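sorry to bug you again but im stuck and you know this stuff better than me. below you get a single protein, a line of residues and a line of whole numbers that encode the local backbone shape. mainly i need to know what kind of three dimensional shape the backbone takes. anything you notice is useful, everything is just below:

***
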Amino acid sequence: MTKNTLAAGRWRGAWSAGGVAGSNAVQGAAAATGLGALVVRAQPLFMAIKWAGVAYLAFLGVQAVRSAIRGDYPPLGGDAGDRRAAGAAFGGWRQGFLSNITNPKVLVFYLAVLPQFIGDGEGLPVLFVFALSHALLSLSYLLVLTAFLDRLRGVLTRRRVRRGLDAVTGTALLGFSARLAAER
């Protein structure tokens, strides 16, 4: 979401935030219906999701490090509603969704947290409300962060600052990928 906001403005950042929130809603619904527990217990499926997450994080990390090394950034563009806006919106949403849906820890989080909020006689509807409220809260937070980053965009997209951010972000993503790969 941060990269999308800095690279293409508030519009793409907001769509990226929507992708993260949409992924939260899907994983929350999966946990609420019990599908999440099946995914976690079905070791081959859980491992496939884990390794997809490892690969996607590594891919994003390599892209960021490569951008930092090249240091060749296009000039700042606005959020102007041109013909590419729909493609930029979908690209932002897709990146936010994929980066979050392939993170098995999000599903495990829902499985660990949601059951603590249901009492006797409450069931699926209550779990759905909690799962969707988390998705809406994350969307709200990420949209506020997007607006903040968009205001700082002029400073944060200076070539030297951007190269530093890309280097740090890429290194962190590669580290997260390696850590996820090393977990048993």
The mean pLDDT is 84. The chain is about 80% helix and 0% strand. The longest helix spans residues 43-70.
